Amino acid sequence: MATSAWVRDRVTEKLKKDSTIGAAALKRWLEEKYCIKLSYYVVWDGKEKALDDILGSWEDSFDHAFFL
Fold first, then answer.
1. Per-residue pLDDT of the chain (68 residues; tens, 9 = 90+)
2. What pTM did the predictor assign?
3. What secondary structure letter does DSSP report for 35?
């Protein structure tokens, strides 16, 4: 069974190129590429984890705002 961490590892490069792609589109892409069925929530969570890795978390952005 695929986990959100597995999804994160596979979508990070795709999200670096287009961070606006939705979870449903990522789900279709992953299912076609890897011939598996995925839960929408697992893909959504994996996408959020990948975006946190790329852009940083909300908490980090608030921490940096107070140092300006």
1. 799 999 999 999 999 999 999 999 999 999 999 999 999 999 999 999 999 999 887 777 766 666 55
2. 0.84
3. T
